[in-house]
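Marked as duplicate of an earlier ticket. Keeping the data here for the record.
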Amino acid sequence: MSELDDRLEIDRAKIQSSVGLQIPIEITSYTLPRNTEVYIRSVMEMFLEECHQDHLKEYLNFCLSELLTNAKKANTKRVYFQEKGLDINNPEDYKKGMENFKMETLTNIDHYLELQKKAGLYIKLSLRILADKIYIEIRNNVTLTVFEKERIQQKLDSVQQYHEMNEVFTNVLDQSEGAGLGIIIIILMLQKVGLSKDNYQVFSDDDETVTRIILPCNKVVYSAVEMLSYEFVNLEDTIPILKDHFDQANQIVNLADGIDRKALYEVVRKDLSLALLPFKYALEQDKNCFNLQKAIAMLSDYDLKFIYSDSNPRNRIIDDPEYFGEIINHSRRVSYYTYNLYKNCKAKDTFPQDEDYMYLLGLFNSLGAVMLAGASKNQMDYITELSQQYSDLGDKILDIFLHRNAATYVSMVAAKRLGFARGVYYDVVGWNGLERVPEADRARVAILHLAEMVDFYSLGMADFYQIDKTALKLFDIVDEQQFVKLSNDLKAGFDKEY
């Protein structure tokens, strides 16, 4: 196996995690040598395979190469102008600089690549699946000039004139900055797979230029996973439970001298499954209830004895507790992290929700994962049978449903069925797509995002760069060292309490 193959095998697990968690994966280069470009293209191909859009690889390979070249050229242009003492934003200087830019940089490219590296100018590939869209982005840390924006817009406006590649090569030529074919051909490539120039975006964001291609997810796979989520949740009205945790609750509610509700709360609050049970009944009395102590207080001793008894048909002790227990422990850690992050967040006074709400939000954020990990044989048989109706895609759909980002859909559907308020289940599923969360709620949900990422980072499932900047900014975190300290403090606190 070659060195490149080794790197790809290592990255496959990261790609699978990024698809499953719906967080971005990135590769950064400063000089973009040929072997790195090959590597980047291979990573994109694997990402498309994980998203079940293999058939787009041939078209997107050209697009990716063109976008990487454009970003590299833009960085070269900045150091070239700087070396020549020209202002790239001045019309006269820009015109003067572009007269010999192409020739001089091509004949002395190593020199200018070294200058780019010293200046810290990078080219970055970012890949992400978010809900039903796939985002492929090339970023470089320079902003577009007015002249570059005009040139890009001219190319986009001229696309409608062309229908075939040979027309482009015959009619388009731009000697100053290159052939000028790339943007037009990218749009034509997208049109061949049923997309349009609306799926192509170029813009400057802070100190970066972003070129983005937006692809739809495989509609058959996406729709099938969504359908399976509803069928899975609605098939049974049961909650999977760990036996030893259930026995603790059962013992408390059957004490001879009455139920110690404080002791019950301390046991139930540490287990997502046990915490769900009283809400089924509490929400019938108060549809906005999202406080565990309140939910327990609303129920009579008789109700609590029934809820945490073997005779309650909703209680289903799972047969294989190992993986299920891992998910329960994950939700416990995330709830602790969310609670403590909230308490130490400077912006918390602007949130209408309190620390108890945030603790429970952290606990219930793993609702879909717990339901899937604790699936009954009846549910598994039914879901497997339904997935096989999709012929060749059946196995892929089942794999995504059981092991990938389907947990998000299951969380949403299960929270709806349990009767939680709309705001609650949107909070539960918003953590890994903060840009889709309403601005008024984004900072609060960002706390949950950071709590999740602390745990995934500690498990080696996520890297620092994959953490949303909104969440880091809440706690004035600017580098990985600060994040590691925060993570270590939270983990130490959890270990001490639990």
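See parent ticket for discussion. The chain has 24 helices and seven strands.
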